[in-house]
Structure to design on (621 residues):
C-alpha cells in the first residue's frame, strides 16, 4: 500500500500533461490497476497482515465514512444523464423503423436505439411549449407540438470537462425548495471524461479542490434533524466505470477509484493514496487494493468488505478475515493471525 | 411573424424589380449574347469588365477594373432577413491572367450572419472562401473550366444560462473542386456540364458549454462529417444569353452546392436533386 504512490504518480502525471495540451485530453491508463484487482499476486500471511492491517482499517473507515465516491459518482451520473438526453435515438426495425424515439414504447415490433449523434439545443416547435428546450425526440415535452431543431453533431468524439461547485456544509441545502446559488468558497470538483458514440468513456479523471460536503445519514436526507458529518476532499482522482458502463446503470457497477489526496471527516484530516472499488447501490461493500512491493503493483491483494463479512483475495484464492479479531480463517478454522 | 414575411416579400420584390429594371434599361452597348467578350462568369475564371454590372436574382456584381469584380449574393440577405438578421457577404474575383486561350482567376470573400433560435439562442457564423479558377478556350465554341475553393467556417453560439443549449465555437473547413465543359450551341444558347466534388472535409470541431448550471459541462468535440466527404454533383444545364437578359438553368444529380452560402447539402436531403438557377442582366 505504501508503494501505491508511484503508480498514482504515473497516472496523475498523464492527467496533468493532458491538461496542458492543446489537443483533446488523453485518459489515464488504469489497466495496470484493473489487472491487479483481477490477478492478485501476493501470498498473504500473518506477518504481512501485521504490517498493513491498521492501514487497511483506517482507509476503510475514512472512505466509508466520508462517502467521497458517492459525491463524485453522483456528478458523473448527472452528466451522463444530460448527455443521454441530448443523444438522438431512432427506432430499429418494426413499424416505425428510422423514426425518432425516446423509448421502446415508440417502436412497435422494434427497439429504440441511439444513433450516436448528439443534438444540442433541441426546442419545441409549435404547441403549448413552443420555443422551450426539450430532449431530442421527446415530443411529450411539447404538448401539441414536436421536439426538434437544434444543432446535430454527427457521431462526436472528444472530451467533456465538468466543473462542479461542491454543496458545502450548510445544513439548509437539504431543505425542500432550497435553490441557493452554488458558492465557489465550498470548493469544486473538476473532472474530464471522454465522449464516444454518444456516450461517456469508461475512465473519468480530474481533481477536487477543497471540496466541502455533508454526509447525509442513511435513509434520511434531513441533516437538520439528524445532523450530518462534515466531510471534504482535496486531491487528484481517477476512476474506471468497468466494462459494462455503456449498458448498465452506473449505480449498479463496480467502480474502481484511484485517489491521492486528503480526506477530511468530522474535523480530522486523513492522507490517502489508495485504489478502491465500490458499488454505489451497495453501501456496505468496498474492496481495497493493497500494494505491498516495489515496483508498484508487482505484489498485491484485495481486501474485501461486504456487509459484516471481510475477506482476502490473494494469489492462493479467497478466504475470510476479521480485522477486529486480527485473524483470517476458513471452514476448517484459523489460517493465521497477527 | 407577419412582419418577417412582409419584409421577406419586400426584399424579393426589390430583387425582382432591380432585375427587371436592368432588363428594361435598353442598350447602350452592342455587347451581349455569347461572344468572345461576353463569357459565363459563374464556375469560370472570367469576371466582369470595368464598369460592367450584373444584376440578378442570385447575385449582384460590378466590375471595378477589368481584372477585378465585386459580388454580393442575394440569398444570404433574403434568407438572413427571414431568420431576423441579414447575412452580409462580399466576394472579390480577379481575372489576373487572360491571354490567348487561357484565363486564370483568384477569389476571396466572406459571409457572416446570425441565426436566432426559438429559445433566443443566437448562432453566429463566419465563412471565408478562397478560390482559384482556370478557363481554357479550346475553340470558339468549346471551353473548359476548372477550379478549387477552400472554405473555412467559424461559428459560435450563446444562449440563456439555463437549459441544455450549447455555447461556444465551431470550426470546419472544406475543399471543393469543379470542372465545367461549355459548348456554345448558338449565340444565345450554351450547353454546360458541370461536375462538383468535395474531396476534403475537416472534422467539425466544437468547443463550448453544454450546460452552464452546476455541474457545468464543457465539451471539446470532434464530429464526424465524413458523410460530406466525396459529395459530388453532375449537372447538365443551359445558359441562355440575349441582348441583356441571361438565364442559367440546370438540374443535376446528387448533392446541392449552394452558391452564396458556400455550403453543400448532401444528396439524400433533397432526393439527389441538384438545381442550378439564376436569372440576371448584364450591362
Amino acid at each position: 500500500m505504501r508503494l501505491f504512490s508511484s503508480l498514482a504518480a504515473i497516472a496523475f502525471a498523464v492527467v496533468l500533461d493532458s491538461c496542458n495540451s492543446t489537443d483533446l485530453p488523453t485518459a489515464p491508463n488504469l489497466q495496470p490497476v484493473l489487472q491487479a484487482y483481477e490477478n492478485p499476486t501476493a501470498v498473504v500471511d500473518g506477518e504481512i497482515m501485521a504490517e498493513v492491517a491498521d492501514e487497511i482499517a483506517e482507509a476503510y473507515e475514512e472512505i466509508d465514512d466520508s462517502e467521497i465516491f458517492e459525491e463524485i459518482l453522483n456528478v458523473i451520473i448527472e452528466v451522463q444523464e444530460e448527455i443521454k438526453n441530448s443523444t438522438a435515438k431512432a427506432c430499429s426495425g418494426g413499424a416505425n423503423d428510422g423514426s425518432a424515439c425516446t423509448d421502446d414504447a415508440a417502436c412497435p415490433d422494434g427497439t429504440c436505439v441511439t444513433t450516436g449523434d448528439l443534438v444540442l439545443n433541441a426546442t419545441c416547435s409549435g404547441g403549448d411549449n413552443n420555443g422551450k428546450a426539450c430532449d431530442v425526440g421527446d415530443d411529450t415535452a411539447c404538448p401539441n407540438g414536436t421536439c426538434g431543431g437544434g444543432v446535430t453533431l454527427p457521431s462526436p468524439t472528444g472530451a467533456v470537462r465538468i466543473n462542479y461547485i461542491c454543496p458545502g456544509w450548510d445544513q439548509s441545502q437539504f431543505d425542500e425548495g432550497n435553490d441557493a446559488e452554488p458558492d465557489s468558497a465550498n470548493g469544486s470538483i473538476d473532472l474530464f471524461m471522454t465522449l464516444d458514440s454518444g456516450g461517456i468513456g469508461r475512465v473519468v479523471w480530474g481533481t477536487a479542490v477543497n471540496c466541502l460536503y455533508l454526509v447525509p445519514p442513511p435513509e434520511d436526507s434531513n441533516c437538520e434533524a439528524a445532523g450530518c458529518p462534515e466531510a471534504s476532499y482535496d486531491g487528484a482522482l481517477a476512476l474506471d466505470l468497468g466494462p459494462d458502463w455503456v449498458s448498465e446503470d452506473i449505480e449498479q457497477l463496480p467502480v474502481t477509484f484511484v485517489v491521492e489526496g486528503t480526506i477530511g471527516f468530522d474535523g480530522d484530516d486523513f492522507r490517502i493514496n489508495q485504489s478502491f472499488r465500490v458499488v454505489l447501490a451497495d453501501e456496505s461493500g468496498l474492496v481495497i487494493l493493497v500494494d505491498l512491493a516495489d515496483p508498484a503493483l508487482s505484489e498485491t491483494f484485495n481486501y474485501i468488505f461486504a456487509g459484516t463479512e471481510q475477506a482476502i483475495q490473494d494469489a492462493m484464492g479467497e478466504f475470510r478475515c476479521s480485522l477486529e479479531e486480527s485473524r483470517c480463517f476458513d471452514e476448517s478454522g484459523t489460517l493465521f493471525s497477527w | 411573424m407577419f412582419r418577417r414575411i412582409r419584409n421577406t416579400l419586400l426584399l424579393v420584390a426589390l430583387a425582382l424589380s432591380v432585375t427587371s429594371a436592368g432588363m428594361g434599361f435598353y442598350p447602350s452597348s452592342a455587347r451581349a449574347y455569347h461572344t468572345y467578350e461576353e463569357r459565363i462568369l459563374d464556375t469560370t475564371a472570367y469576371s466582369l469588365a470595368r464598369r460592367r454590372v450584373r444584376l440578378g436574382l442570385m447575385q449582384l456584381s460590378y466590375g471595378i477594373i477589368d481584372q477585378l469584380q465585386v459580388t454580393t449574393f442575394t440569398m444570404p440577405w433574403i434568407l438572413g432577413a427571414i431568420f431576423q438578421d441579414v447575412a452580409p457577404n462580399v466576394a472579390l474575383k480577379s481575372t489576373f491572367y487572360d491571354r490567348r486561350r487561357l484565363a486564370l482567376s483568384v477569389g476571396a470573400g466572406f459571409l457572416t450572419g446570425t441565426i436566432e433560435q426559438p429559445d433566443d439562442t443566437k448562432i453566429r457564423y463566419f465563412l471565408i472562401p478562397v478560390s482559384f479558377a482556370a478557363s481554357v478556350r479550346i475553340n470558339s465554341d468549346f471551353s473548359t473550366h476548372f477550379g478549387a475553393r477552400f472554405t473555412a467556417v467559424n461559428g459560435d453560439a450563446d444562449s440563456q444560462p439555463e437549459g441544455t443549449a450549447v455555447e461556444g465555437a465551431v470550426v470546419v473547413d472544406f475543399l471543393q473542386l469543379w470542372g465545367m465543359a461549355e459548348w456554345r450551341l448558338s449565340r444565345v444558347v450554351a450547353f454546360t456540364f458541370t461536375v462538383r466534388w468535395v474531396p476534403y472535409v475537416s472534422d467539425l470541431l466544437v468547443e463550448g458549454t453544454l450546460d452552464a448550471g452546476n455541474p457545468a459541462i464543457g465539451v471539446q468535440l470532434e464530429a464526424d462529417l465524413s458523410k460530406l466527404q466525396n459529395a459530388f454533383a453532375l449537372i447538365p444545364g443551359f445558359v441562355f444569353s440575349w441582348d441583356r437578359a441571361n438565364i442559367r438553368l440546370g438540374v443535376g444529380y446528387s448533392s446541392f452546392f449552394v452558391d452564396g452560402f458556400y455550403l453543400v447539402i448532401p444528396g439524400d436531403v433533397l432526393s439527389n436533386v441538384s438545381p442550378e438557377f439564376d436569372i440576371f442582366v448584364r450591362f
Q: What stands out?
A: The longest helix of chain B spans residues 2-24.
